[in-house]
Structure to design on (272 residues):
């Protein structure tokens, strides 16, 4: 059993599908971040999920999916400024990596981009 | 040729009877071909397995599912091939997790009443073995027997 079940948590959705849980987080969070399956939270819980795995922030609460093989997916909320800060830091690192590998530059150089403002207005 | 290679069987919720039968069958089959086999599951699934095989004749290595996921993420262990058994959305979600964290060649073993729809919902890299089997293991066994490793 993960330490999460011994923490003070709120359940927002119970025994649902992973897809519905992801949509709930996307619609009910002030900030949404996407992590890979296996992202570690609260010392010993590794997120189970179908990518992209949504994690939400609502005030001081972090919303995330919790999957149990016999019971389906739950949307849980736990107050944790520390985990929210880690989530934001993780996102910054992803952007840095993307910039280093030319991800955003690649988009800017796209051949489909208009060459001038006049061309843009024609569209 | 498979000597020393590591295989993982991931059990989903044990409520559908064919799963336990197929896990024991597939473990036996893989071991006979030289594979080093580990079976992962929830506490309940592992208990069912141990009661069915009290002297560990068929299955020697078992591991808690969530603990194993942590060990794969932390790169303490990994496998060459993984058979993820699933008959529900939660099982399919666990399969997606193994697809993302492990370098193993993944087989999604889909069974149960809604096997076809569940099989179609799998959009992550996995080779699908799909059979509408709940009580009779033979439709699933026949498909597993065709897998070439």
């Amino acid at each position: 059993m993960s330490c999460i079940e011994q923490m003070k948590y709120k359940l927002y959705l119970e025994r649902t599908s992973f897809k519905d849980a992801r949509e709930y987080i996307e619609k009910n969070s002030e900030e949404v971040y996407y992590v890979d399956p296996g992202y570690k939270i609260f010392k010993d819980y590794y997120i189970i999920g179908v990518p992209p795995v949504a994690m939400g922030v609502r005030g001081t609460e972090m919303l995330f999916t919790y999957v149990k093989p016999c019971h389906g997916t739950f949307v849980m909320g736990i107050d944790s400024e520390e985990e929210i800060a880690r989530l934001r830091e993780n996102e910054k690192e992803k952007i840095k990596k993307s910039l280093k590998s030319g991800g955003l530059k690649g988009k800017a150089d796209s051949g489909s981009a208009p060459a001038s403002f006049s061309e843009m207005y024609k569209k | 040729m498979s000597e020393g290679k590591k295989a993982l069987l991931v059990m989903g919720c044990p409520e559908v009877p064919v799963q336990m039968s197929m896990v024991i069958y597939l473990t036996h089959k893989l071991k006979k071909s030289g594979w080093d086999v580990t079976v992962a599951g929830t506490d309940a699934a592992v208990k069912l397995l141990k009661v069915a095989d009290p002297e560990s004749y068929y299955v020697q290595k078992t591991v808690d599912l969530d603990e194993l996921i942590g060990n794969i993420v932390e790169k303490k262990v990994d496998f060459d091939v993984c058979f993820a058994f699933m008959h529900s959305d939660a099982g399919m979600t666990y399969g997606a997790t193994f697809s993302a964290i492990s370098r193993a060649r993944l087989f999604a073993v889909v069974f149960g009443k809604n096997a076809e729809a569940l099989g179609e919902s799998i959009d992550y890299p996995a080779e699908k073995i799909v059979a509408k089997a709940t009580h009779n293991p033979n439709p699933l066994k026949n498909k597993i027997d065709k897998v070439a490793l």
